[in-house]
Amino acid sequence: MNDKEKNSHALPKDHPRYQSLKYRHKIIEGMKTLVVAEAGLIAHGRGECFDYILGEKTNKTAKKAIEAAVAALIIAKNPVISVNGNVAALVPNQLAKLSKILKIPLEINLFYRKEGRIEAIKNVLEKAGADLLFGLDESKMVELDGLESNRRKVDQGILHGDWIMVPLEDGDRTEALKKKGKNIIAIDLNPISRTALWADITIVDNIIRVLPEMINFAKKLKTLNIEQIKDIVKNFDNKKNIIETLDLIKNYIEDQKQNAFKNIKS
Ligand code: PTJ
To answer: Whose CA is nearest to atom 1 of ligand 1?
Structure first.
């Protein structure tokens, strides 16, 4: 990229939407280097929309789900984190850090396969410090039955995993993995996507905020004993948590009805 092109992306830090634009540009840059699929831009836009009506913050329901997710990953026998293009573009350093703290492998698993994408994502993750990586050699992958999409091809991590974290996932695979008896942790800003509804633990929040929070919880929960950690997972009620999240959206919209125009002066 030449300087002129770089400058055209320069974002003033005092822009009211700086954070949002920063991550939007990470996705755009990721697409140019094959890390992100073209459809990843659309998926990101859909996420932004839900983030808006969740107040662009980690709500208390998300925090509860994050705690339960980290607890589940600690007690799991074979946990694994599935990584797609958007996730690798947005939070590579945090993925590498979480993988290291919890000693969990990352498995690259793509919906849109294209020559060079696995390599591009591998490079991003390795540069970020990830060393426990699966999903690098397509010839060694096996196919999950009951699934037509490219995600049916999985490596050792997902194949043998008991708890699988699937950020920004499509519904078909979540359903297929559930039918195989796997436990699923979803990160999805859409609380009523099929993935969100099928998962055992659904974190309705932006992955850019979720990963740092998971790292904090990982450090904190590691100081508890195993029974206490098991209790966190046992006491978490995903259906109730999603319903409460929908209430938060409803309340946010109601609040906007009352207050959105207050600061607008003609
Ligand atoms: O890299 P690939 O080829 O594996 O493809 C990845 C995408 C994301 C393109 C693919 O998985 C896809 O098409 O996903 P969907 O079906 O659009 O679902 C993505 C879900 O993630 C949607 O429900 C979005 O609302 C949600 N989402 C998008 N951005 C974020 C998000 N959730 C949390 N944090 C985000 N930043």
So the answer is: 85
Total residues belonging to the chain: 266
Closest ligand 1 atom, residue 49 Cα: 25
| Residue 225: C-alpha distances to residues 71, 136, 137, 235, 251 (Å) | 11, 35, 38, 16, 37
Model confidence pTM above 0.70: yes
What b-and-e string marks burial along 156-166, b requiring 16 or more CB atoms within 10 Å of the CB?
A: bbbbebebbbb
pLDDT band at 7 (very low <50, low <70, confident <90, very high): very low
Distance 43 CA to ligand 1 centre (A): 5
State the residue for tokens 């929908």. Answer: 246
Pinpoint the alpha helices (H) of 170-259: 171-179, 194-198, 207-221, 226-234, 238-259
Site to probe by mutation for ligand 1, drawn from 19, 86, 173, 175 as the one with most ligand atoms within 8 Å of Cβ, is 86
In angstroms, rounded to a whole number, what is the distance separating the alpha carbons of residues 98 and 106? 10
What's the pLDDT score for residue 173?
Answer: 86
Q: Whose CA is nearest to atom 24 of ligand 1?
A: 47
* Confidence grade of residue 250 (pLDDT, cut at 50, 70, 90): very high
Angle between helices 117-127 and 92-102 (to 10 degrees): 70
Mention every residue, 6+ apart, whose C-beta is less than 8 A from residue 253: 53
User: 68 C-alpha to center of ligand 1: Å?
Assistant: 22
